[in-house]
Amino acid sequence: MTERDRLESMSMRRRTFLRGLGTVMALPFLESLVPSRVLAGEAARPSMRRMAFIYVPNGAHMKAWTPERVGADFDLPPILEPLASVKNDLMVLSGLTHDKGRANGDGPGDHARAAASFLTACQPLKTAGANIRAGVSVDQVAADKLRGVTRFPSLELGCDRGQQSGNCDSGYSCAYSSNISWRSESTPMAKEINPRLVFDRLFGGDDPQEAGESRFLRARYRKSILDFVLEDARKLEPRLGTSDRKKLDEYLASVREIEERITRAARQEEQKVAGQTQPPVGIPKEHEEHIRLMLDMLVLAFQGDLTRVATFMISNEGSNRSYKFIEVSEGHHDLSHHGGSKEKQEKIQRINTFHVRQLAYFLEKLKAIPEAGGGSVLDSSMIVYGSGISDGNRHNHDELPILVAGGGAGTLTPGRHIRYPKNTPVANLFLSMLDRMDATSDRLGDSSGRLPFLYGEDRAF
């Protein structure tokens, strides 16, 4: 075990948990509960680092995505305008390519290849059968190296149901279009789309029977999960300083607010399908609320150090969802084949902007949470946002829309637009991120080295 591993293991053991029937609630780092000699050791080592990958389908309207100027004095084009409040916390990376999203002799199927190669940088085997093959994704490389440090090695979230079989794109299995996280070259990590199940997973106890009993009692008596841990919380409060009490109150209030939103969604579903024998799934009717609930739980997972690695597919690749709530009644995929139509491109831009608005919501939440030792959770994180396709009409996999937000605990210099040479592999970015997670790998997919200029003028971090 390395010295960092030892310190991380100690940090996990020091993590404060509130416990109740079938409930284990990890809390944010509370300085009041840690001896001063240990705090000194914490301050002397790097902050914990987190990484998340947020995927959007069907590419982007690149003319309204790409800043005109490079460097720190870059502009925010129309699609990126919702990120104005966090402009100094992000990098726009232009020129990056996923060669393995290209056909390379395999013919049609760009959507399936786009998702399957996004985090693996590997050419997926063209098959609609059970013999799927891609590669290990960057998130799972990191999760494997960090296993045991947090309660969950990684979280895989999404909003669209995944299919692990069937033909979804020109002879490619649906598993390719539905997953971006791959534990092995033949095993995708299925994502969870039900907010209630994610919530129960984050805060459920280790005993399945107790966890089930807790869910039953909460549903029957309309209790909050906080009702099961209040006794532990009351015992804890006298040991906390003023700032830590405020931090605890804010955290518990966030948990309660999210739980109430999930409960409201479940009740809407009950009314919608009254008389069903299966429990309601609790997925909000409104797509934006669904996205934000999932992002809010990812915020809680990072804040409570439940995991440091996550993926989130806002929609499956090739999604044909309509967005009537922003006055786009046509399907997303259909519109992406715009054929040069300005009207269709304007609607694609509207969808792109809606998705970026959700990213801004997420980043603003992370930025508002103080980190132990200074800075914010966003300062300690690396959040990649993007798509495996550039222009949906061309189905090209170069000049991809890629953003990186956060400071990587001082190892990134955000607030810039960086343009890389044509066909620079996205996998080079991932190798650089793995270095910063202390999960160094010699190679990932078609990587050709580390990505320069992520920190100042390419100085060592």
Q: Mind sketching the topology for me?
A:
Layout (H helix, E strand, L loop, with lengths): L2 H12 L2 E4 L2 E4 L9 H9 L5 E6 L34 E8 L12 H9 L19 H8 L9 E4 L8 E3 L2 E2 H5 L3 E3 L2 E2 L6 H9 L4 H14 L8 H7 L5 H31 L14 H17 L5 E5 L8 E2 L4 E4 H5 L5 H26 L13 E6 L15 E4 L10 E10 H11 L25
Parallel strand pairs: 3-10, 3-13, 4-15, 5-10
Antiparallel strand pairs: 1-2, 4-14, 6-7, 8-9, 11-12, 13-14
Helix pairs in contact: 6-10, 9-10, 10-12
Task: Provide keyphrases for this structure.
35% helix, two-stranded antiparallel ribbon, disordered N terminus, Alkaline Phosphatase, subunit A, 461 residues, 2 domains, alpha/beta, globular
What does this structure look like?
- With 461 residues, the protein is an alpha/beta fold.
- It contains 13 helices and 15 strands.
- The chain has helices spanning 3-14, 36-44, 110-118, 138-145, 174-178, 195-203, 208-221, 230-236, 242-272, 287-303, 332-336, 342-367, 426-436; strands spanning 17-20, 23-26, 50-55, 90-97, 155-158, 167-169, 172-173, 182-184, 187-188, 309-313, 322-323, 328-331, 381-386, 402-405, 416-425.
- The strands form five sheets. Strands 5-10-3-13-14-4-15 form a seven-stranded mixed β-sheet, with helices on both faces. A two-stranded antiparallel ribbon has the order 1-2. A two-stranded antiparallel sheet has the order 6-7.
- 49% of the residues are buried.
- The model is unreliable at 3-14 (pLDDT under 50).
